[in-house]
Specification:
2 helices; mainly alpha; single chain
């Protein structure tokens, strides 16, 4: 008895060859990588813009805080000037009641209108030195 050999013939491939499949796979991976790089660059640009905006906002807040602080200082200075003017008026009234204003040296101690907002300049406008203030 003889043995029969069966030979199986595979049908010829009609699709792309394995090399073409590998090339297409490489192209698709390169395309995916390029898309990921583009997305990363876009996100990086957005992040950089957000950081720059954050820095500008911080600077604007700092400037605003300085402005508000300077307004408060001016308001406090004006309030202090008003209190000082009230005290000076009270003292002049008391001096007038005591008769000191009739004294010849009293003219040296007359109050002077301070016109400067700067405390240092205001001190320079006074008619006598600090050491002479009783």
């Amino acid at each position: 008895m003889g043995s029969k050999k069966f030979v199986a013939y595979l049908p010829r491939r009609t699709g792309p060859s394995p090399i073409e499949i590998a090339k297409e796979l490489v192209r698709s991976r390169q395309k995916e990588h390029a898309e990921k790089v583009a997305v990363a660059k876009q996100q990086s640009a957005e992040t950089a813009a957000a950081i720059a905006l954050s820095h500008r906002l911080k600077e604007a807040c700092r400037v605003q805080a300085e402005f508000v602080s300077s307004i408060r200082v001016r308001e406090e200075l004006l309030e202090c000037k008003k209190k000082c003017a009230d005290i000076i008026a009270q003292n002049e009234k008391r001096l007038g009641e005591s008769g000191f204003s009739q004294h010849p040296e009293a003219s040296e101690y007359k109050t002077q209108e301070v016109t400067s907002d700067d405390p240092e300049k205001a001190l320079q406008q006074t008619p006598f030195e600090r050491s002479e203030i009783p």
